[in-house]
Structure formats: C-alpha cells, structure tokens
C-alpha cells in the first residue's frame, strides 16, 4: 500500500507540472516517489503495480478532452465515450509498465550505469509512443519545462527528447540519494550520479542562455511582416449548422478588417474556419474572396475540401488549408497528412467494426506530407490541428523550405479541459526545435505568437473572440541540428535501452 501511495504522489505532482497548473519545477523531483516505490520490485511487479497510479493520474486528464468531444460533438453516448477514454488510459499505462520493467532489470547496475539507462529507457518509450499506431506523443516529460526558456534551448539539437532525458536523470539521481538515506545504508550517499545530473542541467542551462542571445541576434536580421490572427470562437455545436454559415463568415470579415487596420499583410484563420467545402472559383467570387480584396491582405484559412474522380465516380475528402492573395485568388494549398484515427478516419475500416467517433463528413484522405505553401520568397509550414504535437512534421516543413510555421486548429472539441492548454504548450518546443516563428490560430483558443526562442509574445484566452497582430520574421540561414538530422538523440536512447534490455533478459535466461 505504501508503494501505491508513493506512486500516486508522483502522478499528482506530474499532473500539476503540466498545464493548466503549469508548475513545471515539480517535474524535477515528481518521479522520485515512483522510483522509490519501484526499488526492489521484480520484473512482473515492476510492470504491473507501482507505475499504474502514475499512469492513470497523468493519462486521464489528457484523455478527458477526447471523451468530451466524442460525447458532446460526436453523438457518442457518455458511457461509450468514457469507455473509449479508459481504453486509451489503459493503452498509455503499458508504457509506464514497460518503464517499471526496465527499472527492475537495471537494479543490477551501479548508480552511474542506471543514470544512463533509466533516462534512455524513458525517452525510448516516449519516442515509441509518438510513433506506434500512428502515435500519441502527448504530455511528454520535456514539455513541463516549456515555461523555463533556458532549459529547453537544447531542443534545437536533441528535440524535446533531450529535455525529457534531463528531467528523468535528475529524478533518478535524487531517488538514489533519497533511497540511501531512507534505508539508512552504510557508507556515503551516491553523490556521483547527483553531481553528473547537476552538471548536465547546468550545461543545458548555460547552452540555453548563450543560444538565446545568439538567436535573438540572428532574428533581428531576418525580414519581417505584420501577421494577424483571427480567433472566431465559433461554438462547435453550431459550427456546421447551415443557418450560421453567413454569420460565421461575418465574424471573420470583422476580425480580418480589424487586423488589416493594424497593417497585417497576412491574416490567419483557424482550422475549418470556412464552414463549407472549399471550391476555389466560388471562394474567389464569394464573400471570402471579397474579404481578401477589401482588406488587401493575404488570408490563410482552414476548410474542408474534396476531389471528385469522374472515372471511378468517387470522392476524396481532405482537411485543408488554403492561402488567398489580396485579389482573393487561391495561391496555395496544404492537405493535412497526419489524421486523427477514429476522428477523421477509421483505420482498418474493413476489419474493425467501429464507426467514426465524431460527426461530419466521411473518412478524410491523407495529404502528401509536409509541403510548405509558397509565400514571401519562402514558405508557410502549415500544421493542421494535432499535427503540431509531432516534431517530425514541423521539422519536415522547415526542411522543405518553410520560413514560418502556422498551426491552424479548432480545439473547441476540448471545451474547458486541460487539453487546449497542453496543446498550445507543445507548440513552444516546435518553435525552438526549428528556430522558427510559430503562429497559432485556434477557433476557441489558445491562439498566439511564439518566437524562435520559445517566448510566447502574445496569446489569447479560451473562447475569446479577438484579433492579435504582431511582427513575424521569416527564418533564414542554416537549419538547426535537429531540423537537419532529426531524432538522432531519441534513436540513440532507444538503442541504449534496447541493447540493455536485450542483454539483461538473455543473461537471466
């Protein structure tokens, strides 16, 4: 029972480290009780018991937004939506169990060896979770530090995974010392791992301060334009009601006009801001094209779209973003490439007896991948909705020539849960990883401007109908190490964890 309580304390502390609470400093010692609880456990117990309270505590808030959207907007009965949420929590708990399993295998190592293996295993499991079954890299440990800018600058080399590694390494070192003192073991406490962990954090922070100053100097040499964000705050319950189409466009007309009055050359609307299918000819002649012409601004907007194939008499649907120029002409398009399973499409539709969990059109089709929309001699790297939580998609956009990142999202699905706050937080790391401005336009919030050092220059509240305007600079120069080479750090951690687990199991056999 004592070990379950310790694990529950870790779970509670981790929840508080993430938004909306945002007490990120807790993450540096939140896992210590869990590690003390796992100490001395066998492989099966390490997998099955102490880690579960932590998993349930941290996963449930992240999954609550899914349950909320399915029930309130997808017509899924409350019992079924809760059931789906619990299945997702159970799935995520497997990764915690796997970490507990590796923790027990590492018990034969000295403290210094464990200081390498445990953070590596943690990163490997986060990395696996970000890719397995289309991926769900939500509430990674590194995101807790998004508010402490010097500590996240290393992400331009390691990605968010390096920040996670540091957080877990510090927790492990503290747990080694605490365990020695609590068990009243003879000899000196294991201070070497603590010194190594302290040196790691000091190095990361020093790099952060130096790098931030250098990046600020680089940014001043980049060309800039005024960009506006139109947050319409359209209630999801009426968003697709045909009776509200005209009033929805009127809202964005007014917001875009306000942004134009503040000299915005580009105004960004949220995901599916246009509540009907996008047909370029009709858009140009209709009220949306008229808005661009009257304001003299480029408009980047989300909208559902389709392609009809007369040969096969079939239709493909897309969740898209379109760029209109000041003449109201469509000059660019991006189709979302990473779709939400069971929300935007049903995987293995011919096998699984499951329907889409959200209302709307049939299954969407994946776009061709991260392809920037040409703009101002560079490109806009569009991230539609939860594409912003996948580091490889933002990286792909910048590698392909994007000079600014734009996240168009709805987030009304999540209501007032913790999900929209956490969703926004992850965009901070995307900006740092690629040293690019990131502009985020959400239907109900949170919208905002994030600079290449991860500073949130300005942000809206939830369900706030408003306009933001700020200068955004278009990145230039050499890509970051992370942009150029990707997840080498995460792969390295995965190799270390995999080799260790494999050799340990073979030795035991």
Which strands sit side by side, in order, in the main sheet? 5-4-3-2-1-12
Total beta strand runs: 12
Look at the helices and sheets and give the structural class. Answer: alpha/beta
Return the domain count. 2
Helix content percent band: 40-55%
Rg on CA atoms, Å: 24 Å
Strand content: 5-15%
Q: Can you tell me the CATH class of the largest domain?
A: Alpha Beta
User: At CATH's second level, what is the architecture of the largest domain?
Assistant: 4-Layer Sandwich
CATH superfamily of the largest domain: Carbon-nitrogen hydrolase
What secondary-structure arrangement, pairings included, does this model have?
Layout: H1 2-17, H2 27-30, H3 32-38, H4 43-48, H5 51-73, H6 78-105, H7 111-129, H8 149-152, H9 155-158, H10 160-182, H11 191-219, E1 224-231, H12 245-261, E2 266-268, H13 280-285, H14 287-295, E3 298-309, E4 314-324, E5 330-335, E6 373-375, E7 378-384, H15 391-399, E8 404-409, H16 419-434, E9 438-442, E10 448-450, E11 456-459, E12 466-473, H17 481-485, H18 488-508
Parallel strand pairs: 1-2, 2-3, 7-8, 8-9
Antiparallel strand pairs: 1-12, 3-4, 4-5, 6-7, 9-10, 10-11
Helix pairs in contact: 1-3, 1-5, 3-10, 5-6, 6-7, 7-10, 7-18, 10-11, 12-14, 15-16
Give a structural overview:
48% of the residues lie in helices and 15% in strands. The chain is globular, with a radius of gyration of 24 Å. Strand 7 (378-384), helix 15 (391-399) and strand 8 (404-409) form a beta-alpha-beta unit. The strands form 2 sheets. The chain has a 6-stranded mixed sheet with strand order 5-4-3-2-1-12. It starts with a helix and ends with a helix. The chain is built from 18 helices and 12 strands. The model has no long low-confidence stretch (mean pLDDT 91).
